[in-house]
Write a structure and sequence with these properties.
Elements lengths: L1 H18 L18 E5 L2 E5 L3 E3 L1 E5 L12 E4 L5 E3 L4 E4 L3 E9 L2 E10 L4 E2 L30 E2 L7 E9 L2 E3 L7 E2 L2 E3 L3 E4 L2 E3 L1 E2 L6 E4 L10 H8 L7 E2 L2 E2 L2 E5 L2 E3 L13 E6 L8 E2 L5
Parallel strand pairs: 2-9, 10-25, 12-24
Antiparallel strand pairs: 1-4, 3-7, 5-8, 6-7, 8-9, 11-17, 12-13, 12-19, 14-17, 15-16, 18-19, 20-21, 22-23, 22-24
């Protein structure tokens, strides 16, 4: 039996040589008898704007340089907060960054570098509109109606400090307009776009639907949080519910992923906050109006 087995093995090798087959081994996990020796990802470098996509292709070859047909490819990225990659090599970008995308075949890897540039800022204008209108004007019945909210009073509007932050709300990929007149009791609205007066003003309020939050305390030395603004608005803000929109919540502050309690975000001058409910998308970037 040993002699016959040796003869059969020699016959198989001879048959392979006669057929010009480079390898007849079947112990390769890639199937078809080919073991990956190199993996090349193209394009090797790409530059895109956050929110755009780029399609990458991985080519695996064996030790003889022969392409491997239909290899099983595992795709990974170096920064999952900034980009994602599909099983087909489609890279979706979210944040400004430089990321390494790796394709692995049977333990052999190749890489490409994707540089993500920030998007062009969107100019904000007083009295403007950013997003789809879904909320009614002003604070809700459970929000600020003249009495103090979280110890924040509704005053005459005389301010000792005056600065602005911006809030974007995106639900299932669609930007939703924040309501005008939040924190302004009995708001007088001009042209259905700008609250110009009211009975009283909370230290946190909004004049239009741009998402600009006005921080105007009548005394100095206070800090304010996003949670306090939502309390004045009268809408919930949790890790799973944003103004009645429920689902997976992702928060960005000034272009970086924020993992803490969104209510605890301390508002700052020209700060840009994006809250997304549902699938993640690239957060928008804005330029504040002149003199803001």
């Amino acid at each position: 039996m040993h002699t016959n087995g040796s003869w059969i093995a020699r016959g198989v090798v001879a048959a392979c040589a006669a057929l010009g087959v480079a390898a007849c081994s079947s112990n390769s996990p890639t199937g078809g008898g080919q073991q990956a020796s190199t993996v090349t990802v193209t394009p090797a470098t790409s530059t895109v704007v956050a929110g755009d996509s780029v399609s990458l292709t991985a080519t695996a070859k064996d030790a003889q340089g022969n392409p491997i047909t239909n290899p099983s490819i595992a795709w990974t990225v170096s920064d999952t907060d900034a980009v994602s990659v599909s099983s087909a090599g489609l890279v979706n970008t979210l944040l400004s960054s430089t990321d390494t995308v790796t394709a692995t075949v049977s333990g052999v890897s190749g890489t490409a570098v994707v540089t993500v540039q920030p998007p062009t800022p969107i100019q904000l204008n007083e009295g403007g509109l950013v997003g789809a209108v879904t909320f009614p004007n002003g604070s809700t019945a459970s929000g600020g109606q003249g009495d103090p909210v979280d110890t924040i009073p509704c005053g005459t509007g005389a301010d000792a400090e005056h600065y602005h932050a911006h809030l974007s709300l995106i639900v299932n990929g669609q930007q939703i307009a924040l309501p005008l007149g939040v924190g302004i009791k009995n708001a007088v609205v001009e042209g259905d776009s700008l609250a110009i007066a009211g009975t009283c003003f909370y230290w946190l309020h909004s004049h239009d639907r741009t998402g600009i939050i006005h921080i105007e305390p009548s005394v100095t030395g206070h800090t304010f949080t996003l949670g306090e603004y939502f309390d004045i608005w009268g809408e919930p803000l949790t890790s799973g519910n944003v103004a009645g929109n429920q689902g997976a919540v992702t928060v960005y502050v000034d272009g970086a992923r924020y993992f803490g309690d969104p209510r605890a975000i301390v508002l700052a001058a020209h700060q840009q906050i994006t809250i997304e409910v549902g699938p993640r998308v690239a957060p928008p970037v804005f330029d504040f109006p002149p003199d803001y």
